[in-house]
């Protein structure tokens, strides 16, 4: 196995291809670092948006209860009044049990 002087000098100095490849690898590494930084920034922004949204959870629940209350049909209070009247017609009183005992005594 003989080594030629040209082969030895080629191994110590990079070729044009190797220089371009090294430059492209460096650019790719810089680009990937920028992508990673931007993804971290996006993640922090999303976390802050989610935390702000979570602060409105109790307000949303309150408004939902209000909406459900307001969307009830107007007949419902009348139906509860009719049930009270039916209970009195059957001989039942609206007095609590303790007041009923005091009234019987």
Automatic annotation (TrEMBL):
Region (Disordered): 71-105
Xref: InterPro entries: DASH_Dad1
Record's subcellular location: Chromosome, Centromere, Kinetochore; Cytoplasm, Cytoskeleton, Spindle; Nucleus
One Gene Ontology term from the biological process aspect of the record: cell division
GO molecular function, one term: microtubule plus-end binding
Biased composition (Basic and acidic residues): 73-87
Organism superkingdom: Eukaryota
Keywords, comma-separated and alphabetical: Cell cycle, Cell division, Centromere, Chromosome, Cytoplasm, Cytoskeleton, Kinetochore, Microtubule, Mitosis, Nucleus
Signal peptide: none
GO (cellular component) term, any one: DASH complex
Family: Belongs to the DASH complex DAD1 family.
Protein name in the entry: DASH complex subunit DAD1
